[in-house]
Design goal:
Helices cover 46% and strands 16% of the residues. The chain has two domains: 196 residues, 2-enoyl-CoA Hydratase, Chain A, domain 1 (Alpha-Beta Complex); 47 residues. Helix 1 links the parallel strand 2 and strand 3. It is α/β, with parallel strands linked by helices. Helix 5 crosses helix 6.
Length: 262
């Protein structure tokens, strides 16, 4: 893949920050940006030093969603070989299934596929100026990057239908009230708040967190019997980790555990 700098990755300790870097287009996702975002997520997933991830955008927007300019203009720059929908689905699946906790630091607008990206993260912290919308209907389209799956599970079916059917954009306060985002913070505190949460998650028992995430995601559409079997499997794996041994030892010694992620 050609690296065009449309997605940036920075590591600081056990936290990787992945930044969509197209501020001139409000971080709209063209095919190159999607391909680079997928590679960044895959790299973070496989890097043993990375134990938590922050996803954010450069400038005034988290992401304005699909770059419709690429769709509408045959002369616009496009990545050959894969269409936008195929690439976006790869990104959403990779993000949703990523075995490490992901915190979305939502600065500014997050609409369409940009909103879907945030919804696929484990936590969403919104700047006070952030705005959200499943705006597909406004261009005569239905959701195509995960909204129909994610939004009802996060805010409930009735609210999800209202947001999807109307294409209405909501502010950070309303987004927090309906549970679309975890919390609202002043704009200038967004990254420090996201960093604080990511560092707390990175300091945890990574194997256990990854397995808990996998089970939570899968059990949305599972039976209680399948859930119990999966929890038994996860428990067996956790019981063999160094972090579990350390956790039990810390309880007995009445101290805080020092987890190492394995």
């Amino acid at each position: 893949m050609t690296d065009t700098g449309k997605v940036l990755t920075a590591k600081d300790g056990a936290v990787a920050t992945i930044t969509i870097n197209r501020p001139e287009r409000m971080n709209a996702l063209d095919s190159y940006a999607l391909a680079e975002l997928y590679d960044a997520l895959a790299s973070a997933a496989h890097d043993p030093e990375v134990r938590a991830i922050i996803l954010t955008g450069t400038g005034r927007g988290f992401s304005a969603g699909a770059d419709v300019k690429e769709w509408a203009n045959e002369d616009a720059e496009a990545r050959p070989g894969e269409d936008w929908v195929t690439l976006s689905h790869r990104v959403m699946s990779r993000l949703y299934r990523l075995p490490k906790p992901v915190v979305a630091a939502v600065n500014g607008v997050a609409v369409g596929a940009g909103f879907d990206l945030a919804l696929a993260c484990d936590f969403r912290i919104g700047a006070a100026s952030s705005r959200y919308g499943s705006v597909y209907i406004n261009i005569g389209f239905s959701p195509d990057a995960g909204a129909s799956f994610l939004l009802p599970r996060i805010v409930g079916m009735t609210r999800a239908k209202e947001l999807i059917y109307t294409g209405r954009i909501i502010d950070a306060t309303e987004a927090a009230e309906i549970g679309a985002i975890s919390s609202v913070v002043p704009d200038e505190e967004l990254m420090s708040t996201a960093r604080e949460l990511a560092e707390r998650l990175a300091a945890g028992p990574s194997v256990a967190i990854g397995l808990a995430k996998e089970n939570i995601q899968d059990h949305w559409t599972s039976t209680i019997e399948n859930a119990l079997r999966n929890e038994q499997r996860a428990g067996a794996i956790c019981s063999r980790t160094e972090d579990h041994v350390e956790g039990l030892k810390a309880v007995n010694e009445k101290r805080a555990p020092q987890f190492i992620g394995r």
